[in-house]
Amino acid sequence: MQIEIANNSNPGVCSACGGRCCNHRPGVTDITDWGKTRNEIETNIEKALRTGYWCSDPWDGDPTGNDDVDRVHMIRPSGRDHKGALYHAPFFESVPCAFLTYKGCFYSFRDRPLMCRTLIPNQESPGDCTAEDPELKRKMAIRWMPYNNFIQQLIRRLENEEPDSNGARPILANGNYQRE
Ligand code: SF4
Ligand code: SF4
Q1: Where does residue 149 fall: left (phi above 0), alpha (psi -120 to 50 degrees), or beta otherwise?
Q2: What is the pTM of this model?
Q3: Atom number of ligand 2 nearest to Cα 25
Q4: Which one of 15, 33, 88, 128 is most buried, counting C-beta atoms within 10 A?
């Protein structure tokens, strides 16, 4: 079940800023952004990765502090120039989001990744924006942990499939990907 966040979008502030957040790095999704059941979540993630518009941007280390895993896969939109890559672009460069259009985000507010929905536009200083909860990403990484092996195996499988010129891999037989 998706986490409800009140619509805090503020087009006036964001257009004054010019989309600094979306131009720097796409926001990460929460596992709850992908569906209600495990089957629905796994199906939607596979369909998304196959479009070439989504990739893994892992949390490095174990977000619980237990040292049980090296990293935790988290899915976020691809960079505009990195479509088809299954892993995030290097950290040393800014990566404009593949869903950033000249009119703003392609998605309506409720369909955006949780990290995008929780970033509050700063009216006093557009561009200097933070989420209310500084621990949000770590908490999200913990929620992703039960899907870590699934995503690792999925990425291994997709690495053996050559993407087309748009970064897409063949769509599953059960239909086109469409995020709900
Ligand atoms: S949320 Fe903040 S950084 Fe992002 S576009 Fe709006 S003002 Fe700019
Ligand atoms: S999904 Fe939308 S709000 Fe989030 S980074 Fe991409 S363009 Fe920005």
Answers
A1: alpha
A2: 0.92
A3: 5
A4: 33
